[in-house]
Amino acid sequence: MRWKLIAEFVLLFVLLPIGFRFKPFPFPIIPALWLLTGYCLFRLLRDSSFDRTLLWNSAGLRTRCWQIVVLFVALATLIAAVIYSLHPDWLFTLVRTTPWFWLLVMVLYPVLSVYPQAIVFRAFLFQRYRQLFRSPVAITIASALAFSFAHVVFRNWIAVSFTLVGGIIFAWRYQQSRSLLTSAFEHALYGCWMFTVGLGDFFYRGMH
Known about the structure:
Number of strands: 0
Number of domains: 1
């Protein structure tokens, strides 16, 4: 069983991103994410030891909302300041040039991308591979690394490095709150900010 789990982990979180990075076959990333999410959710719901309340648990968000917002405001301000000092022409590009598309992203991105990613890289990974990563620190790092490595599909270091930091925050939040909603909410804040502040191309088309 252990070797099967290792093989599955490598297939899903190493080989699959590499395949999409080099694109030996044309297949859009978002539908691929939905298919992967479907597999992960199927596995979770068939696992009798999985606590299904973890998939939502709004109480976790209510009790941690303020600390999430305070951390976000601090980091979002830092990111904006760095962009302004290095590439001021990037700042709020999407908002300035295509505001209706920006608004569409703000509405659809959390639902169509963030929550599916939360199922895959947090709910599924934490439950499915807890035998491989037995300590809270180890599984948090595994989740963050898998989340970050998945972004090699965009072929730039900004997406990979930003999501490594974000992956640590989101995995820790999920573990602390026992609420996928809480982790996904925090993920959505940072993801929407990336598109808003001018870094969206690095997480969408792959380059600026």
